[in-house]
Protein: MFS transporter
Organism: Marinomonas phaeophyticola
Amino acid sequence: MMLALFLIVTNVKGDWKNDESDPIDWVGSLIFALSVSAFFIGVSELPDPLHIFYSVIGILLFIVFIKHQNQAKAPLIRIQALQANKALVGSIYSSLLMYSANFPIVFLLSLYLQYIHNLSPSEAGSMILIETVIMMILSPITGRLSDIYGPRVITTAGGLVFSSGFMVLVWVDMDTSMAFIIIGLALLGTGFGLFSTPNNSSALGSVSKDKLSIVSSIMNLSRTMGNMFSTAFVLMMMSLILGDVAIQPENYPLLLLVVQITFCVSLILSLSASYISFYKR
């Protein structure tokens, strides 16, 4: 991070700066932070009555946030302008869905490999890195393909390949071979590698230069929210199905059920992202 900051300061001259800056909407920032915190604290331990209350408070505060943004002189997000930009809205929604679908892989597949396949934490992490490595290799290539063929085709193809990975992994059981899991991870990495860079390019290319920082922040927020949504969902499923018990051999079928249900939901989310990428840009 320090290296990136040093390179920006020393090599990027002043044309990236915006001379005019709006005041920060501190009230909107506070409402949004409280909304997100209350909602995710609540969802993480459903169906506990107190956490249901937190979830409802989070939703109500988010409604208040939207109303505040429509009335504020210098809002964090200009809702009406955002709604009018079809390409940007499509990129935000598809990013939110794809990151929501992807995040459970790191947590749940790691648990599955460690408990059911008896891998060490480092071995399980190395296995999951297959997806990341493929993404890293494909990202610069897909950026160039997006410039040639447009982001719509590439992101849609990426979403469908990503979905095919979950179509494979949703069938994991107590006796699934490692080769089967590697195929699923390779499809996930290929799909996400095809999707990620063109989707960001589509969002950034849909606005003027003076709005790039705002759009970049919104895209980053959509990724973070996607991770948080999936984390809350996984915690909720663990709480509902496994409860507070430790993961022991007799509970492995319950852990497997959590994995299968979550991967089914991830499959639906990734297919929805593919639909949005094709029809909503």
Notes: Residues 228 and 250 are 30 Å apart (CA to CA). Residues 212-242 form the longest helix (31 residues).
